[in-house]
Amino acid sequence: MKFIIDRNKWLRGEGSTASCLLRPEDGKMCCLGLFLKSLGSSDESLKDLSTPADIDPTNSVVPEWLVCHSPYRPNGIGCPADVSSIMDANDNMDLSEDYREHLVEKFFASKGIEVVFQDNE
To answer: Full-prediction pTM beyond 0.85?
Structure first.
């Protein structure tokens, strides 16, 4: 599978408090929000959510590897360590763009997904 990240829509490097799957003010999405959108998730299902674990569990487009059981969260669903790590890398304000893109490529490659970065208008 090939997954395209449009850098103009990609919400990154602004810190975790500013990040979400879909920020409605400007329509920007973190890498996981863009991925879920490419799988068919609606904007409404992603809006203002921090992690894939926050999505309605009946949303069938969420791959199993994005979420896991967590007794520490109210809904009982959390994110695996590798997903949490890529969220941290996506939001980190101190990473260079090249290194952030490298980490995103590496994460998705581990899931068998090729990432292509583009600058669309």
So the answer is: yes
- How many CA atoms lie within 13 Å of 50's alpha carbon, on the beta-carbon side? 9
Nearest to 62 by CA among 73, 77, 75, 82: 77
Amino acid at 77: I
Local confidence pLDDT in tens for the 121 residues of the chain: 999 999 999 999 999 999 999 999 999 999 999 999 999 999 999 999 999 988 887 777 889 888 887 777 776 777 888 999 999 999 999 999 999 999 999 999 999 999 999 998 6
Task: Confirm if 91 and 14 have CB atoms less than 8 A apart.
Answer: yes
The helix or strand, by DSSP H or E, that contains position 105, with its residue range, turns out to be: helix 97-109
